[in-house]
Design goal:
With 218 residues, the protein is of the alpha+beta class. Helices cover 42% and strands 23% of the residues. It has seven helices and eleven strands. Helix 1 runs antiparallel to helix 2, helix 4 crosses helix 7 and helix 5 crosses helix 6.
């Protein structure tokens, strides 16, 4: 997968600008659970996901996690290089949810080209604005949607990602995604089980009635 597949404006860059980006590329292959980026002080570079799955989340002062978005094959992460945007100091953590192969463009190389190329600067701003929209959507969900609806939506999303109704996931992991406590998630899942919407077993949540979950989300 070439860089042109990540950047729609690739053809608008000069050969020298393209060369600056390609020569600085760093290839990484990481295992599940690897911490790739840790807060605004860690200016790692731009992540280009070749395969696998990354999770971007924020951490509260009390140590609670909440997932902001996920990154899949062909996705690009800019928050891992937010230091090049002087007005943005966004404390976000990025870890591998699955074994992942990715390319990293160093901040210096990307910023150098972005300062020369208006198309790349505009595209960067568009991507950053899109990610901030994700953050605002998440805030709206937390403020206005009850936990049962958010949990139902998460289970449906997870089933779509994994391609199965039997989700190998712990209550603690779900709580981290939703910014809740494990005990609260366990109580909610047990309620779903009593309604025959899901079936619980050790380290696994099996969706029994997708339609009930969809109705709850809607």
């Amino acid at each position: 997968m070439g860089l042109e597949s990540y950047f729609p404006v690739w053809s608008k860059l000069t050969q020298l600008q393209q060369s600056k980006l390609t020569q600085g590329l760093v290839y990484r292959q990481v295992e599940k659970g690897t911490l790739l980026h840790n807060g605004s002080l860690d200016c790692t570079g731009l992540f280009l996901v070749e395969s696998g799955q990354l999770r971007a989340y924020i951490l509260s002062d009390e140590g609670r996690e909440i997932t902001v978005y996920r990154l899949f094959e062909g996705d690009m992460c800019l928050f891992s290089a937010s230091c090049m945007m002087r007005s943005i100091q966004f404390d976000i953590t990025i870890e591998a949810e699955k074994p992942t192969r990715l390319w990293v463009i160093p901040v210096e190389a990307y910023q150098s080209v972005m300062e020369e190329s208006a198309p790349l600067a505009n595209y960067t701003n568009e991507v950053m604005a899109s990610r901030f929209s994700d953050v605002m959507w998440l805030i709206e969900q937390i403020l206005w949607k009850s936990l049962d609806k958010r949990l139902a939506a998460f289970l449906l999303e997870e089933a779509a990602i994994e391609g199965t109704l039997s989700l190998k996931i712990t209550h603690e992991t779900i709580a981290n995604h939703l910014g809740s406590h494990r005990e609260v998630i366990t109580r909610m899942l047990r309620y779903f089980q009593s309604e025959e919407t899901v079936r619980l077993s050790r380290g696994c949540v099996t969706i029994q009635n997708q339609e009930k979950l969809r109705r709850l989300v809607d």
